[in-house]
Amino acid sequence: MPKITSHGKLFRDWEALLGACEKNVSALTGVEPLRTEMETFLAQARELKLQQENFSGQKKAATQNLGQLLEQGIEVSRRLRAFVISRIGTKTELGKMFGLVPTGRKARKKSKTPVAKPPVVPQATAAASPAEPPDPAQTKGGEG
Question: Could you tell me the pTM of the whole model?
Fold first, then answer.
């Protein structure tokens, strides 16, 4: 999954992941510990983001704490997605709800312009092709 650099996008991604887990709890037996951990990270990250925006003097410390927490949360989201893959598989369309791209056989795209093959040239015999180019003196108007 591509790295998300905006905090708002990251928070929405985590919320969508948690929502998909809630909707598919029957297909994801054993997901509760990871889901709870993800919810905890989301709540803590939101709190630290608010602190970061409110405190001017402690902004650097809050930013560092937020960065560390986001990295840990990203790791938990990876583990949660890996768990989802282990339960539902990689080829199901259900994976889209969790931000996963279904794998499988991709349709082959036809090219818009056909690739032209070079024409097959038969090998020339010695009699059919001139051995030397014509003499320029002979082609100048009949002197000779």
Answer: 0.47
In the chain, how long is the greatest CA-to-CA distance?
102
By the 8 A CB rule, do 38 and 14 touch? yes
Question: pLDDT, tens digit, for every residue of 88-122?
Answer: 888 777 777 778 777 766 666 666 666 666 677 77
Do 40 and 46 form a contact (C-beta atoms < 8 A)? no
Helix axes 59-88, 7-23, angle to 10 degrees: 30
